[in-house]
Specification:
single chain; 135 residues; alpha/beta; 5-stranded parallel beta sheet; 5 strands; 37% helix; 21% strand; binds flavin mononucleotide; Flavodoxin_CS; Flavoprotein-like_sf; Class Ib ribonucleoside-diphosphate reductase assembly flavoprotein NrdI; RNR_NrdI
Length: 135
């Protein structure tokens, strides 16, 4: 089944889970909350028993953070889409964690953003959740 279609059919209240190490993704999540989106900061032992969208930074020369990998090992059944962050200074590895998660789990990569993200990055995810994005 096409998980992208599944997401657009979900209720508009889907949970956004995120990982942050140095706090930049937390700033992004705070902006999402300002739009009324529910968010949850995860660690390796988090358990999420409902559909969710993952927001993850990229670390260690183009890798998905180990904490996120451990989280997904237990929770990937409920993963519906991913958005990733990073820094363009990392060139071809920019926000590549999103590509890896998308490919590994067969879910849509909604987009990539730098550092805290900007208004348009936040609105991209909000639009996706509201189902008005062209997906
Ligand atoms: C050791 C280290 C490795 C990183 N590796 C990458 C990378 O491979 N690709 C990328 O796009 N960003 C990379 N970054 C940048 C982070 O993904 C970026 O700063 C992100 O916004 C951090 O999110 P956080 O503050 O929520 O942890 C790296 C940062 C550090 C400190």
């Amino acid at each position: 089944m096409d998980k992208r279609k599944k997401v657009s059919l979900l209720d508009k209240d889907i949970l956004v889970v995120y990982y942050t190490y140095t706090g930049k993704t937390e700033v992004f999540a705070k902006e999402l909350r300002a739009y009324g989106i529910r968010t949850l900061s995860i660690d390796e032992s988090s358990v999420v028993n409902e559909p969710f969208i993952l927001v993850t930074p990229t670390y260690s020369f183009g890798e998905v953070p180990k904490t996120v990998l451990a989280f997904l090992e237990n929770n990937s059944d409920n993963l519906k889409a991913v958005m990733s962050s990073g820094n363009r200074n990392w060139g071809g590895n920019f926000a590549i964690a999103g590509d890896i998660v998308s490919k590994t789990y067969g879910v849509q990569l909604i987009g990539k953003f730098e550092m805290n993200g900007n208004k348009s990055d936040v609105e991209k995810l909000v639009s996706y959740i509201k189902g008005v994005d062209n997906h």
